[in-house]
Design goal:
heterodimer; A: alpha/beta; about 25% strand; globular; B: six-stranded parallel sheet; 10 strands
């Protein structure tokens, strides 16, 4: 018997009845944008509000500190203050992970309240991540140090 | 799982007498406990979410075959591979074979308790592969050839001076001045590990959960090491226990909302990384049974709800006194004491269920409400029934029961004990008893009321 069969014979095979898990996002704050900014800042992210543009080079020059990269996030989730990044040819994973300073552009129109609102995007992805602040570790003496393997600084440009 | 718990008393004593470990454990109440409390309170009705998480996990376990089958289909439809491993050696062989077929030499690994469970690093090294742990804590203990002392904080028993000594001895680097500060240690690990990330042939990660209907896995880190482990090499292997599956993103969201809050008190870990198969990725999932399926349908099935947050360790008075290495098993703390006998048999771990005050804090903080004290009591009962308990304890308990069943014997034993305590004058570290016992005071008070 193959390992698969031998494990499967020990597992319940019944087809489940329709299963619903309550949709459980909870947000007390009234403003989507304020909630997003407040939670992002709580995770050591610097948030700047900017006007609509397609040219971010001046921001990159102005914010550059060590190796710096700019990526565009398709969504920001107010519940956590995190951004969603989907890896593709133009924005591979390492682009967001290797620089010292990561600048993430997200449009206010692309802010959503809950993780639930990101399911359509996330469920299609084969290499994606939610990022909440700069990379960090508490592994030495339980004290937080920023810049473990990824960015030491994270800046969100929130575009009107 | 290493079978070392038979020296539990010895290890517990070593933990109690280790000042570094004691200093580290002393800050747990302020760090983990307080932060968890605040962060869950911010969630609104956290208890309702914990009930929902428990129910969701129970639903999964009752239909485990169905959901694993669904997951397998989804992964394969997208061009990925699912492998099934009955036990540790099968899982080791599958992973070594995948690496060999690709002529891999360098492997990076992101923290995985399942890989600790099957001693994966030793198997990969025996196959001639170089393996690098990339979670900072795991990397440090790998260099020191130690095992993790906490599910989410593996190097919690070390000081920055210990880490500096380890790095200085193991990294061939030119430094301007000796390593001292935490930030310098983190920066050096970042530099050294980056080389490993960028040159790896195969990346091995665990998974915090698998989503059955989409064929994806999610894993959380604060460092970003899982992302670099999984995304940079050509091949990504996920090693995961069969119980870590959830039906859909609705269930994944529920678990993610509770996981980081219960673990570190963060609303969400810094990185929540989602991977699946695609034509561009060489993606393998190794589903590990290793004893898990034997718990299904038993009174210990609830152990399979565990999401490995570590909250039961962080709140356990015994763990906080002796640390993780004392348990001598892959999983420490209350979950380790309850799970290790279930996976490896009770005999090698017979002392672990005793390493509890049964105070119930572990159950009170568990995000999926595992009845840990009840399971620990079950193991104690089993240890007695199988005569695994030392004879002195068994005879002592039988004597205690005998005396307690005969009131006059109980009273005279109590009298003798009080007398002995009084006469010893605190010689054994016990305070002298008050002049009148509780029982005699009670009798007198009742008499005066009448």
């Amino acid at each position: 018997m193959s390992a698969r069969e031998s494990i499967m014979t020990r597992l319940p095979q019944v087809t489940p009845p329709p299963h619903t898990t309550p949709v459980c996002g909870q947000l007390s704050s009234t403003s989507l944008v304020d909630a997003f900014i407040e939670r992002a800042q709580a995770a050591q992210t610097h948030v700047e509000r900017i006007s609509a543009t397609n040219d971010f080079s001046s921001y990159v020059d102005q914010l550059r500190d060590g190796p710096t990269e700019l990526v565009v996030a398709p969504l920001g989730i107010a519940e956590f203050g995190c951004v969603v990044l989907i890896a593709d040819e133009t924005q591979p994973t390492i682009k967001a992970l290797l620089p010292d300073t990561l600048i993430v552009v997200v449009s206010v129109d692309h802010l959503v309240l809950y993780l639930e609102d990101a399911w359509p995007l996330l469920s299609q992805a084969s290499d994606a991540r939610l990022i909440l602040g700069p990379s960090r570790t508490g592994d030495i003496e339980q004290t937080m140090e920023l810049g473990a393997h990824g960015p030491k600084r994270m800046i969100i440009l929130l575009m009107e | 799982m290493n079978i070392e718990s038979h020296s539990f008393p010895h290890r517990a004593k070593a933990g109690l007498n280790n000042p570094t470990l004691q200093a580290a454990l002393a800050v747990f109440p302020d760090r983990f406990q307080a932060k968890r409390r605040v962060s869950l309170a911010a969630l609104g009705d956290a208890d309702a979410l914990r009930d929902a998480a428990r129910d969701m996990k129970d639903h999964v376990l009752s239909h485990l075959g169905f959901y694993l089958h669904q997951f397998e289909g989804a992964v394969e439809r997208n061009g990925g591979h699912v492998h099934w491993a009955r036990d540790a050696s099968e899982a080791q062989r599958i992973i070594v074979d995948i690496a060999r077929e690709r002529h891999a030499q360098r492997v990076t690994k992101s923290k995985s308790m399942a890989s600790e469970e099957i001693h994966l690093n030793a198997a990969l090294e025996a196959a001639g592969l170089s393996v690098t742990e990339t979670d900072l804590g795991e990397y440090i203990i790998q260099l020191r050839r130690e095992t993790p002392s906490h599910i989410i904080a593996p190097a919690v028993h070390l000081t920055r001076a210990d880490v500096a000594t380890t790095f200085t001895g193991r990294h061939a680097l030119k430094r301007e001045k000796p390593l001292a500060e935490r930030s310098e240690l983190v920066a050096e690990a970042r530099t050294v590990l980056r080389e490993h990330f960028l040159n790896a042939d195969v990346g091995i990660t665990g998974a915090n959960l698998m989503v059955a209907d989409t064929g994806q896995i999610a894993l959380v880190t604060n460092e970003g090491n899982a992302d670099l482990t999984a995304s940079v090499p050509k091949t990504h292997i996920v090693l995961v226990g069969i119980e870590k599956i959830v039906p859909s993103w609705a269930d994944a969201s529920l678990q993610l909302r509770l996981l980081a809050r219960s673990a570190t008190g963060q609303p969400l870990s810094t990185y929540t990384s989602i991977y699946g198969a695609s034509p561009q990725r060489d993606f393998h999932v190794v589903l590990l049974d290793n004893g898990r399926s034997t718990l299904l349908g038993t009174d210990k099935q609830a152990l399979l709800r565990c999401i490995r947050c570590g909250a039961c360790l962080n709140h356990c008075p015994i763990y906080l006194a002796i640390g993780g290495h004392a348990y001598g098993a892959t999983y420490a703390g209350p979950i380790g004491a309850a799970l290790s006998p279930a996976l490896d048999g009770l005999r090698p771990h017979r002392d672990l269920p005793e390493a509890s005050t049964l105070c119930g804090r572990c159950e009170a903080v568990c995000p999926v409400r595992i009845p840990l004290p009840a399971i620990l009591r079950h193991w104690r009962h089993q240890a007695g029934a199988q005569k695994l308990t030392p004879w002195a304890v068994r005879w002592g308990l039988m004597g205690w029961r005998f005396i307690n069943q005969i009131p006059w014997l109980y009273r005279s034993a109590l009298f003798c004990a009080r007398l002995a305590l009084r006469l010893s004058g605190g010689a054994f570290g016990f305070p002298a008893p008050p002049a009148a016992s509780f029982q005699s005071q009670w009798q007198r008070a009742r008499g005066s009321q009448k």
